[in-house]
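Weekly modeling sync, notes
Attendees: S.R. (lead), two postdocs, one rotation student

Agenda item 3: backlog of single-chain predictions. S.R. asked that every request posted to the team notebook include the full sequence so nobody has to chase files. The rotation student volunteered to paste the first one in as an example of the format we agreed on. Action items at the bottom.

Example entry:
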Amino acid sequence: MRLLDIKEGTSGCPGGPISSASSRTSSPASFSTLPHSSQLPPLNTSVTMAPLPPAEKLSLAVRKNVRDEWENNKADLEKQLSELLGTEWTVEADPKAIWPYHNDGYAKESLGSCIKAYVEGAIYQIKYLSGRYGSEFATEINDLAHAHVLTLEVEDQDPARFSYNGCDIKDGKLRILFNETCLGTNVDYALQENSLLPALNAAPSDKPFSFHARNSIRQDYEPAIGAVKKDIADLLGKSVDEITINPNFEANFAKLSESKPSLEDWQERLGNFTLKYFEGLAYQMKYQKVGEDELIQEGLLEAVSKNEYALRIVDTLTYDSYGEVVVEDGVLYIQAKPDTFGTNIDYAAQKLVDQL
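Predicted structure, as returned to the notebook:
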């Protein structure tokens, strides 16, 4: 028998088209069609459901399948997961607690195979996302799921957060969660990007930024800001080491978090937007001939005496509607409001020369 593999948008569970359980050999390009995390149901709901009573005893056939397919492979799966994440992880699954949700489907007779498939799918997704987001992705998982335990459990929130399955982090454990009516369906996708990333973002953390913001900074800002800094330095006739680019991430994140940004996905775009503001500054400096007109260059260097260029989120702009630049105490600030953050980025510094 094969696990059901139902694509989002089909009706019923476990009804619908049947195909191979594993799509792990297919191209990762399918991730580009996933909905944005801001379109997903919230991870936290107010109602927690009590689980069904566990099975008192499993049949001999089911126990044999659990032994052969799950218990005999558990150590190897834990080894794969531990090597992938760079530290020791364990996997927990209670067959008696899971079996009552079989709904006369695949797991009714092949419970061990079903549990194994969920764990294999989780390892595959973590491996794929680690390749996409770099070595820091494993560090994030290890820090946020600090118990270093992967579990398989029924989704306990009502209404359910997932159509078929998903994941969250609870008590430091990374939980694979299946909808109570969909055990054995779409097992490869429980930790797909639009489930795992929101779960990491919702996990308790003492870090100053959310996971989404940290990930955006790593992916979008850090690899590219060096080239932008060089452009600005060249326009000023300075070396790269002589100027400071201050993204002001911690203060800006705090300000945006307490306000109402115009974009729901601002956390995922924090790094990109911040980079674009500095790119816009460089563009306006070039357009306004900072690198060509000695008088303008001299005026800018005199005004921005600390050679620092910063981005900050403010409650009120001084003279513009979406973004602006002001000079205070030798620092040039690119300013935006929470409700205009990310809007008309290229024009924030359009009145640069007027401020000198």
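Discussion: group reviewed the output briefly. Residues 60-85 form the longest helix (26 residues).
Action items: rotation student to repeat for the remaining queue; S.R. to check formatting next week.
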